[in-house]
Amino acid sequence: MSSKIVLVLLCALLLSAPYLSASLFPLAWFAFVPLFWTVVQADSWRRAVLWGWLAGFLTHLFGFFWLVYTISVFGEFPYSISVVVFLIYAALQGVQMALFAVLVKRSGLGPLSVLPALFWVAIEFWFPLLFPWYLANSQAPFLTFIQSADLVGPYGASFLVMWFNGAAFEAFLSWRLKQPVRWNGLVLVLACAIASVAYGIVRLGTITSETAKAPTLSLAAVQGNIGIDLKWNPLKVKGNLQSQQDLTKQAAGVKLVIWPESAVELWLPEDLAQLPPEVVPSLNAESFFIFGARSYRGHLSGPDFKAFNTAFLSDGKGRILNRYHKQVLLAFGEYIPFSAILSKLPAVPFADGFTPGDGPHTLDLPGPVHVAPLICYEDLMPELSRAFVKSGKANVLVNLTNDAWYGRTVAPWQHARLAQWRAIETRRSLVRVTNTGVTTVIDAKGEMSESLPLFSAAVLKAAVPVLDGETLYVRFGDWFAWSATLISLAAILLCWKRTG
């Protein structure tokens, strides 16, 4: 029993390590080998479920430990309750790997050890996650390998990394049992990985050439560095606004100035036509301004009141041209799941929360430039960026967020690395404008070409390429994940029918 716990712990450490330090990305290629050994040696499928769940639970404890702080500060929970909520969260997310473990236990590795990879992609595609992550995200620095995202999204890299884990385990197991070593799966997956890298090299060259020829949009991302202790304090609102206006004076001459999520701390009517003079920063008449704010519909104290997390677009004189309401709300911050039940617990706040917006509405500038405004962690969801590009014809992605809620942890960098995939999938520039960092420009190759230091008040000026065109992933969506799902179902039915 103790040896199995050690192996499960090793799996969790190897799997979470690349998310804590990107340079450790090679560890993911071996992270599941200890878990495979534990699952195969389990004396029942129920025990396999237990080991899989424990691996998932520990992985989330190690990889997303910072959520305790975020739940406490963002959701206004007492710290002790935040710990309990985080443990419940990690326990629920551990079900993902429990399901994976039972499928491997019941169905085996399959021909060429490929079944675990198919199962994993199907589970990644369907399993709900509060903070979306993929096995592929562990490979963020391996740019030549992850360029296949413009074909299959993040699922291609996940598939190859898991396939390598399965094939490596099968080779190890056959050696351990003193049988002829089964190299076939390992050789084939290595060939596929090499092919993926070759594709990446070619695509990086192609994108570099296209970027050099593309028109550019000059912009300035304002990182106000307004601490959580200052944010939403009525006595500090005016000073916070002035700090960002002072920073914006450094943005003279750019086409677009961007402030982060909730940069304007005033409640603004959803149908606002003109910004109040005290809110409008000093801009050129031909410039445009995108900023985040809380907006509302109806009467602030009436039954028809609706609150939104909004990105507004105005011209240089403060005239509102368009707006976008955040579609995917953050649990425990923008709404409380099961709030009717939780409100009965002592010391737990009750809030009606925000209302989700509808549709991928772009914010359009002359040029034409169609900006996809992704608010908060909407930049972690492939389907949103894809919808903006496919139906909204977005040619620049902009993420407005306030990652100060993560504190001085690894989380701001985790967020940025998870977001980099949206640039590769859509082949668009992604500009992340944050309150405290990471404010950065991610180019269409997935490289963070320019970034501001964390927790500093500064302005990032850049000229980002405006790229059009449609990748295969944008056009056809998650065809690879759907294929893996269908093949997995067929394999499960076939294997379980044979075993009864």
| Major sheet summary line | 7 strands, mixed
- What is the straight-line distance between the termini? 28 Å
Radius of gyration: 24 Å
**CATH architectural group of the largest domain:** 4-Layer Sandwich
Unreliable residue runs: none
- Number of separate structural domains: 2
Number of helices, counting only DSSP H or I runs of 4 residues or more? 17
Give the helix proportion (percent range). 40-55%
**General shape:** globular
CATH classification class of the largest domain: Alpha Beta
Helix and strand run: HHHHHHHHHHHEHEEEEEHEEHEHEEEEHH
Strand-residue proportion: 15-25%
Q: Helix/strand/pairing class, anyone?
A: alpha/beta
SS elements, strand count: 13
Mean pLDDT metric: 92
Q: Could you give me the name of the CATH homologous superfamily of the largest domain?
A: Carbon-nitrogen hydrolase
The CATH topology of the largest domain is what? Nitrilase/N-carbamoyl-D-aminoacid amidohydrolase
